[in-house]
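Hi all, long-time lurker, first post. I run a small reading group and we've been trying to get comfortable going from sequence to structure in the token notation. Rather than ask abstract questions, I figured I'd post a concrete chain and ask someone more experienced to write out its structure so we can walk through it together at our next meeting. Sequence below, copied exactly:
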Amino acid sequence: MSENKKEQTNMKQKKGIDNKKELTLEELLKILKDRFEKNMNRHKGVEWAEVQAKLEANTKKLWSLNEMERTSGEPDVVGHDKETGEYVFYDCSAESPKGRRSVCYDREGLESRKEHKPENNAIDMAAAMGIELLTEEQYRALQKLGNFDLKTSSWVQTPSNIRELGGALFCDRRFGHVFLYHNGASSYYAARGFRGSLRV
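-- Answer (accepted) --
Happy to help. Here is the structure in token form:
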């Protein structure tokens, strides 16, 4: 391997970048359809054909879903907003998405670290992907559809009054229960990423 290639590989490993290639439209839709059909308990009463029609009419949202998939989030439909007609996707990977771990909560938390800074933060990553971090309420709703984060944890949206005091919130499932915890927003762990939501 050339020095340049080695350097590029090392950079990717340092940044925690998931190396999966970007999927074609056909590949992505097939993956989403297969996952949809294998997990009907997550979206009772929703028809895939209607979801696909929405997706094909919105390439920007498809790009966001590709980013969710590329970073190992395994997005799936978890609801349908009848008022707006939008379908709601959450990251449904068994553990916190591999391509989004070892990140501080937000940029302010990242910049406050004097040493051992990670390459990114959850809020900026989510914004770049066109998605939003799950709220605590959304996270608990997801956990009613299955058992998630049995070994990992996920940052969730933190109320401003907590964030202003330097804290940030995260959740996981242990001992058959869903727990909400706090950390300094500048902290990061190899087993903590974040889950996102997307409305299409």
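A couple of things your group might point at:
The first strand starts at residue 75 and ends at 80.
The longest helix spans residues 25-38.
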